[in-house]
Design brief:
It is a single chain. With 362 residues, this protein is α+β, with helices and mostly antiparallel strands. Helix content is 33%, strand content 33%. It has three domains: 2-204, Murine Class I Major Histocompatibility Complex, H2-DB, Chain A, domain 1; 211-305, Sandwich (Immunoglobulin-like); 315-359, no CATH class. A hairpin with a 6-residue loop joins strand 3 and strand 4. 22% of the residues are buried. Residues 1-16 form the signal peptide. One of its GO terms (biological process) is immune response. Keywords: Glycoprotein, Immunoglobulin domain, Signal.
Length: 362
């Protein structure tokens, strides 16, 4: 049921476009409690570029920040006023769910019914840094189906189902409501979007750059290795990760897989891309990471040749440092396995306990 509630609204995130930002508010009301943890009769959340920035539910009845920069840059009265606004909307949802259930003859329904409202504005960054309105949306959804939406250009409400026609007629005749909705999307929402983006960017200046790693490990297929490019510990989530083979960017057609951007437990993010290769492949692989927020553009390389050279260097340094100890082990050991005349056997037995982690690929 939670899965159903969350996915009633699906909308594209513009994370790939650094010049476009969006502010979205999603309100969800249920006709009755469902008795499941984490699912409330009413919830409201704000999202900046798809990332939750504030939250309210009917159990706690307090609007709270979900990002540190929201807590730092927005005063106490903002949260007080926001809480009052959310409580009013909670009552509005309760009344209107009742109206819709009666209109659709669902008063005797044993199943809960869901009403959602999404308000969203998008702005494009101009050369002077200001945000220009490019798109707005005010849309209602009932029990998983589109119910009513506002056409910002025509200033009319659109009803895709006959049950919504009474609401459309009533709201189309309310000029104040139409003017307010259009004004909110094009002006007030953009103002809040601009304030939020500015506050987040101040936080970004303190944000750490991504840590970048490229490595290989055994694959489930005996003849293969998995080459992985990992970027972690970064904020914001906008990042470009590429794996190249001898300079050519690999794609899904080459077997490339990506975790996508995932959250860490400290409000930073990570992304892991990987591709399987043959153990015999001597190509040069590079991991390229671009993180515009922290001005990071880094390339790290991996190849079987480089790996073998690194491993040989480790072994050489180890032998140089512990050569006397190995000789003592060889002379004094009583186990038959040490009686081989093959020096490589003695060396590998001496190294096994100390550096087996570095040799796991072989």
């Amino acid at each position: 049921f939670l899965f159903f509630v969350v996915l009633l609204f699906c909308f594209p995130l513009r994370d790939c476009n650094f010049n476009t930002h969006s502010l979205t508010y999603i309100y969800t009301g249920l006709s009755k409690p469902v008795g499941l943890p984490g699912i409330h009769e009413f919830t409201a959340m704000g999202l900046l570029d798809g990332r939750m920035i504030d939250y309210y539910d009917s159990e706690n009845q307090t609007k709270v920040p979900k990002q540190e920069w929201m807590r730092e840059h927005f005063p106490a009265d903002y949260w007080g006023k926001g809480t009052q606004s959310r409580r009013i909307k909670q009552q509005w949802f309760k009344v209107n769910i009742g109206i819709l259930m009666e209109r659709m003859r669902q008063n005797d329904s044993a199943s809960p019914h869901v009403l959602q409202w999404m308000v969203r504005c998008e702005g494009e960054t101009q050369p002077n840094g200001a945000l220009r309105f490019v798109h707005g949306m005010s849309k209602y959804n009932y029990d998983g189906n589109d119910f009513l939406s506002f056409d910002d250009k025509s200033r009319v409400w659109v009803a895709p189902v006959k049950e919504a026609l009474p609401s459309k007629t009533k709201w189309d005749n309310d000029q104040v409501l139409k003017e307010y909705t259009k004004g909110y999307l094009e002006n007030e929402c953009i103002d809040w979007l601009s304030k939020s983006v500015t506050s987040e960017q101040k936080q970004l200046k303190k944000a750490p750059p991504p840590d970048v790693y490229v490595f290989a490990k055994k694959s489930r297929v005996e003849t293969n290795l998995t080459v992985t490019c990992l970027a972690t510990g970064f904020y914001s989530k906008n990042i470009i990760v590429r794996i190249r083979r001898n300079g050519r960017v690999l794609t899904e057609d080459d077997g490339l897989s990506s975790s996508g951007v995932l959250p860490n437990n400290d409000e930073t993010f990570q992304r892991r891309d990987h591709v399987e290769i043959l153990k015999s492949d001597l190509s040069k692989f590079s991991c390229e990471v671009v993180h515009e927020a922290t001005r990071v553009d880094v390339v790290k390389t991996w190849s079987k040749k480089l790996f073998l050279l690194s491993l040989l260097l480790i072994i050489t340094l180890f032998l140089h440092k512990y050569s006397e100890l190995l000789c003592i082990i060889y002379i004094t050991a009583a186990a038959p396995v040490f009686q081989s005349s093959n020096t490589s056997v003695i060396i590998l037995l001496g190294l096994h306990g100390g550096v087996k982690g570095h040799m796991s690929v072989m």
